[in-house]
Amino acid sequence: MLEGYSALAYAAALTKRIELGTLVTGATYRHPGLLAKTVTTLDVVSGGRAWLGIGTAWNEGEHRGLGVPYPPVSERFERLVETLRLVATYADACNLFDAGPEAMTGRLDIFRRHCDDVGRNPREIEVTALSRLTLGPAGGTSVSGEPFTTVDEAATGGSRRWDWTTSSSRWATTPTTRHTSMWQRWSVNWDR
Fold first, then answer.
1. Is 10 within the bounds of a domain?
2. What is the model's pTM?
3. Cα(144)–Cα(147) distance, integer angstroms
4. Does 95 map to a domain?
């Protein structure tokens, strides 16, 4: 996998109109000052097309592989709460990782409270979540534990109980194991 900001700098040199940013950059991978310098440099060299997506990070194996310390859950949760506070204050968009209905409801409640604290309507901020569903010959289960038996059922959300609408999907099939993985991006529907 390529390093995100190096690849974006290359894309900036080859293009004139596309926006440049990662869906999310784990806050644990870079010192905040270095990350700010990286993104502002990309913004300057691209003529103002860069944006920053930042989150608390979740991939322990990637941290170990890069030799980056992986903070305990309590510290990452504190960073998540602080990140949501900053989103409520400054951001135009927020992406959450799908951790199941209860966790998502909790995260959205925290986010709404932070918006209330700063006097901002949460509808002003595009809130999305990313889900991964893996289907094999016998079906599969979502991150939140919902069972799926067909690709069509997974693509339409099955019995999804949240206030989300599907905005995009990407499928990848592994021929040797006959498993299909789908990364699905969900947008919050605040009116439900």
1. yes
2. 0.61
3. 9
4. no
